[in-house]
Every structure is written in C-alpha cells, then in structure tokens.
Amino acid sequence: MDHFPIIQALCRTAMAEASPAVRKQIERLRDALKKDGDEKQAASIAGILTAAQRAREVAPSRIERSRAQWVGETLAPNTPVPVDRETAAALADIIFPNEISPRAPLFNSTVSQAITTILEEWTNFDVLSELDIAPSKTCLIYGAPGTGKTRLALWMAHVLKLPVVLVKLDGLVSSFLGTTARNIGNLFSFANRYRCVLLLDEFDAIAKVRDDPQEVGEIKRVVNALLQNLDVRRDIGFTIGITNHPKLLDAAVWRRFEVQLEVPKPDFAMRMAIATQFMPPIKAPDSHLRLIAWFTEGATGAEIESLVRTYKKAMSLRTTERLDLLSTLRQFATLNAARVQSERRALLLDEPTNLFRAMRDDPVLGFTMADIGEIAGKDKSTVSRQIGKAQKNDEGH
Hints:
By secondary structure, the protein is α/β, with parallel strands linked by helices. The two termini are about 40 Å apart. The protein has a 6-stranded mixed β-sheet, with helices on one face. It folds into 3 domains: about 1-55, no CATH class; about 60-260, Rossmann fold, CATH 3.40.50; about 265-395. The longest helix has 18 residues, at about 40-55. It contains 18 helices and 6 strands. About 35% of the residues are buried. Helices cover about 55% and strands about 5% of the residues. Helix 1 (about 5-15) packs across helix 11 (about 270-280), helix 3 (about 40-55) packs parallel to helix 5 and helix 17 (about 370-375) crosses helix 18 (about 380-395).
C-alpha cells in the first residue's frame, strides 16, 4: 500500500482517543490488508489495536487497586512544600492528575509499547506481588530537548492518577553547598511521605560525573547524597528522572534507574501525525501535512508544533493576502534558522525549480505534479515545464 507509514501514524493518532466507530474502521482496514495478502501491514495495524486496548484496560478499578499498594499520606492542594532555608523558595511544584492533559503523547510504536509495559506493571501490582516481583520504580527518560520527555512523565502520572512532585534540580543548588545537600534530603523526605510520582527534571544539573577535575569535593558529596536518597526511595514510590544530556550523568546514576528510556526524534510518519494533532481547528490538505513532515526532518515535536502554529497564523490572519505554504515555510526557515535542517532550508531559499525537483523525486513524499502545483500556487503543466527546462539546462552544462 502506498504511503503506509502515513496511514499507520494516522491510525495510531486516531486510536489515542478512539470511539467505537473509529476502532471498527481500523479493524476493517486490518482485515482488508490481511485479505489482500499484506500480512506485514495487517500485523502492524493489529499491533496498534492491541496497544490501544491495553491502554484502555488501565481501568479505574485496577488503578485503585494499584494505588492501594502505595504507602504514605494523600497530597492535598494546601499541603505545604519544603523550601530553601536561605531564599524561602519552594523546592518543588505539585501537579495534580486533573491538571494534566489526558491526551497521550505521540511516539513511534516501539516507544509507545515500552511505555504501555511500564504502566501495565503498576496497574497489575497485585499480580506481580503474588510472584514476589515489584514493578519498576525508577525510570530515566532522556533525549533531545523538545521531544516530549516531561509531557510523557506527566501523562504517565495522569494515567496512574497520582500527583506529581515536580523538581527542577538546578533550583535545588544553593550558593551554600551544605544547603544544597540539605535541600535534597528535605525534598526526598517530603516525597517519601506522600503517595506521588517524584519527577526530577534537568537531572544532569546535579548528577554530573563525579570525577570531573573542576568539581570540588563538596559537589561530589552532594551527588552522593542524591544517590543515597534515590536508593532509599526505591522501596517507597515511583521516581522519574529527565535529562537532555545523558553523557553528563555518572555511571552510578544510570545504575539507579531500572528503566532507561530514550525518546528519539520523530520519523516522517510521526512528524505527520504530530502536525495532524496540532492542526485543528484549521483543516490542512494532506499534501500540506506531508510537506510539513518532510520539511521538519530532524526536528523535535516541539519544533513541529511551532511550525504548525506559524502555518495556522498564516492561514487565518491574512484573509485577503494569505501566504501560500512555501512562503510560510520560507518565513519559518528565516526566523528559525537553527531549528531547520540546513539541506531543507537551502532548498527552500534556493531557486524554486530545485525544490520542485526534490519534492517530485522524494519517494517518501510521493508528490504528483498536481500536488506540487497546488502547494506552489501554479498549475501542474507550468511546474512540469519549469522542471523540464531546468533539467535541459543541467544536461547542457
């Protein structure tokens, strides 16, 4: 089937909040693929349906049984959080499940299945207990900035119906090094007292390599204090660490995390799914979504969201002189040069014919002359003539 990765991504997006009617149509697609002998593609769609079913099985009754296994008191909106003694600044923010978006973040099937596995361990706490096995209680999520790591961690807490004690570790660092170690101790004592997910953001701010010759002995003791508190918490609650810089982490830090989940930058199909998710209420043509996904190769989900916002502004604010898609992309590439892959940016800002040829020849895009003409604001015969003329010029040279 042509463009199956796109169909696969759209199915995964639809199943995130699928009605019975949507699920029925995706099941029909699975059955049709199998009937036509497309076993591999049918299996892929079946996997999406299975993963969605498992996610739905995280039913309230099972979550309640899981929560019953947690020790500690219940966090309330008026529960005081620990503060830095020197500055009186709060050491953490409390985020409750009803404050977190219920929409699952978009990742490829491999990452999504891994996340489902982690949640299944917690929602089947009682089953694991009968086998004398505990669910994974520590998870390190790492990857490039903007790939959705914090959003993922918050969503996991939402599914588990647990409040989040969110800590940006750079905020724990005090000019008084002894105060930093005390802040860490107070924070963990607080998290260990309540039923919650402890989310340690910007984990590399403290957990640096301890043998760095530029670090003084006191900093090393601060890192040791962090490791000791992580060890104590392993038997108490769920802890998630997040970092953009995994290479800065000490090997001893890595060993503290049972799950080490890398969040990759999205592939073409996922980039299209992300663009589709953020596009409403604007209704963009399929060719526009494909070109946005192609243009954002190497981009993160946050960068794709930023481009979609630019597109929506262009489509809605300029009612009389509406920018075409290529002009919108050029505008974005000019204002966000560091966020755009250099090859794609060069094509956009170069002679349009070179871009048309690249769009025509790219097998992932699968554009027809009509698609290119619609995007460029020209008829397909004009585009064809321009490309043909450029090819003759190249052959002449």
